[in-house]
Amino acid sequence: MLHDLDMKYRHTIHGFDLVIKDEEARRLKLRSIVLRDEAMSLKDQLLSRDRRIKELEDRVDDVRGQLESAQEKARRQDRLMLTQSREIANLKVSPVSDPMLFRLTLTAVTIGGIVGVQRRVARLGKDLVRKARPFA
Question: Which residues lie in coiled coils (predicted)?
């Protein structure tokens, strides 16, 4: 009888050990699923951020192109103004007696307005560069 009780006790202990091992296996499976889900979530976040970075890089490239275009236009206008200023300085005739000189004088006044436009273009270019660099 004592031997039977001892055997039942050992059998019960063995059953508890099996239940504990099964429960540990379930916990490990659940942990594995949770970690897999977290990994997928992190990959999705990474892909989303990569797309955002690409969009921002494209925007920066576009803004740089616009800035370079505006700067080239400003350089062309500077060269034109310099050429016209030299032509006006080389003319030694009074504006009333020479209609060409009168037109050149009007052009010089117009060029003065162009200088203001150039300054505005330069400021806009700087603003575009600042807006294109949100992380700076």
Answer: 39-80
Give me 70's structure tokens.
């505006």
> Is the CA virtual torsion 83, 86, 91, 96 positive or negative?
positive
Distances (CA, A) of 5 to 8, 13, 14: 5, 12, 14
What are the tokens at 35? 């970690």
| pTM (two decimals) | 0.47
Alpha-carbon span 6 to 1, nearest angstrom: 9
- pLDDT tens-digit profile of 70-86? 999 999 998 988 888 77
Phi, psi for residue 129 in degrees, rounded to 5:
-65, -45
Q: Where are the domains of the chain?
A: 2-132
